[in-house]
Amino acid sequence: MLIGGVEAGGTKVVCGIGNEHGELLEHKVIATSNPTETLNAVFSFFAEHPIAALGLGWFGPLDLNPERSSYGRLTSTPKLAWQGFPLLDTFQARFPVPVGLDTDVNAAVLGEARWGAAKGLHTVAYLTVGTGIGGGLLVEGRRVHGSMHPEVGHLLVRRHPDDPFAGHCPYHQDCLEGLAAGPALAARWGTPAEHLPDDHPAWRLEAYYLAQAVVNLMLTVSPQRIILGGGVMKHTALYTDIRRQVQTLLGGYLQHPGVSEAALDPFITAPGLGDFAGVRGALALALDALRH
Amino acid sequence: MLIGGVEAGGTKVVCGIGNEHGELLEHKVIATSNPTETLNAVFSFFAEHPIAALGLGWFGPLDLNPERSSYGRLTSTPKLAWQGFPLLDTFQARFPVPVGLDTDVNAAVLGEARWGAAKGLHTVAYLTVGTGIGGGLLVEGRRVHGSMHPEVGHLLVRRHPDDPFAGHCPYHQDCLEGLAAGPALAARWGTPAEHLPDDHPAWRLEAYYLAQAVVNLMLTVSPQRIILGGGVMKHTALYTDIRRQVQTLLGGYLQHPGVSEAALDPFITAPGLGDFAGVRGALALALDALRH
Ligand SMILES: Nc1ncnc2c1ncn2[C@@H]1O[C@H](COP(=O)(O)OP(=O)(O)O)[C@@H](O)[C@H]1O
Ligand SMILES: Nc1ncnc2c1ncn2[C@@H]1O[C@H](COP(=O)(O)OP(=O)(O)O)[C@@H](O)[C@H]1O
Ligand SMILES: [Zn+2]
Ligand SMILES: [Zn+2]
């Protein structure tokens, strides 16, 4: 049996074919454009492979409340061509098989919890730190939606006393994303994040802000593991710096063995599935859709 | 059929007898003291009533992981007489009936979601603002535990520019609890919170800090409703002030009809069960224990 998975982000779409164990057999990367072009490319990828179920991990905001008539549509998005697009219906019309749908970040956290860095855990957060900051959340085995799309990127953080930068978020200026996403780093320092040297003061501030997001997640949903991915985390020294800052910020309040610098099984970690977390998670959504 | 529920907080214990609909038929309030005295009083209350199931909403920290040998015990608590106390085993030995156990705040959120201000909702947060600040959380119908007890009281908030107070938390100084719990207000202003006049500047700061906790919960777990209870919220003007500050802090980012000041069905609200949220929630735990 073959199943399909699609992870769609703002810049690229990863289509994958998997087997009944959710292993990725084949995949293709497509640039994200308007709905017609993007879906034509996705459909033609799957045309060659008869799939028994499909999972979609899509950029948001999506209506994920099955009780609403707008269920499965994109809602208000700055990508105007996608606004209101009936994503689920369009796929369902093309593929008369069970289709599972969630956000790209919830697909990523699901993939990681099933086969990656959080294998076997039930309460897991996934933060992607890239062009924006987004988060996926699994609580007691369930993907979290609530009444709005969780938008962890806009968490209010404490500004570092050494940071005079006004912030880069159009809504809040100095929220987490406004201080710590890739474009904020570029605007703050005048250099793209990937060109900032290892000893640049940017990284200490970056760890300070991301550590606050980690601490606030620990204090609200207390995940068993927090996975940090996305382009900015390619600066891998951040993992150690963030762990250290988390300990400082907690001030000895919570003891968590995985937070110590010497932890064998670190609480704050990189995606185990690397760039395939999202598409593997989409395969997991397909398998779950098949079962229900 | 009769069932029993106990809500145990740091200062008082509420014991209740309910029927199969979770309605409270009779209750008794006992002062919290050491385990022997406290449980003797609880046991003698229930001695007169044959119960078919029991629910316990107890102050923490509790080990709530059924896979650990310390499951159902109190862990490290400043109440030294209770440290390591085998709560669940002690009750289970006395009452050979199904026993459900959770924290007092999770019992409260469960009670509110079943019969109170969040009736029928699946993702709900409950914050109690009193001697400390604690939180209970229901996500997609499940009570949240994660790998540690969620300690939402110690969220890191942004200090208000007009607030020079160092903060009152022994771990973090100016975390949420260190700035906004009852004792922090008393230390900050030299007057118990209940004696601060309505036009005192304390309330603007208080709303600012509590609004940040609300916003961070909205951005992480996006509850369908946030219930604020506890002694400090007896200053009911806080509800309107917090709603207003939440809108300011969100900066138009999230639109939620219930957050507006004119909302008929407010997103930020008082407990519908008043002081009985915890004991009613304990009855819900008893009913759930009976079913599983
Ligand atoms: N090695 C690196 N170190 C730090 N930042 C990087 C690195 N590589 C890419 N970035 C930053 O990551 C961001 C892109 O993140 P990415 O997750 O790849 O994209 P997107 O969020 O659009 O999916 C850019 O802002 C870029 O500057
Ligand atoms: N009307 C009121 N307005 C503001 N604060 C109050 C009021 N009544 C009590 N408080 C404060 O609430 C706190 C006690 O909270 P409560 O929830 O009753 O107790 P606990 O947290 O110990 O269970 C005290 O710090 C007290 O100053
Ligand atoms: Zn923002
Ligand atoms: Zn604290």
From TrEMBL, chains A, B:
Superkingdom of source: Bacteria
Species, as recorded: Alicyclobacillus cycloheptanicus
Transmembrane annotation, as ranges: none
Stated family: Belongs to the ROK (NagC/XylR) family.
Name assigned to this protein: fructokinase
UniProtKB keywords: Magnesium, Metal-binding, Transferase, Zinc
EC number, as in UniProt: 2.7.1.4
PROSITE patterns: ROK
SUPFAM superfamilies per UniProt: Actin-like ATPase domain (SSF53067)
One of the record's GO molecular function terms: fructokinase activity
Catalytic reactions on record: D-fructose + ATP = D-fructose 6-phosphate + ADP + H(+)
Enzyme superclass (EC): transferase
Entry annotated with the keyword Heme: no
Cofactor(s) this protein requires: Mg(2+)
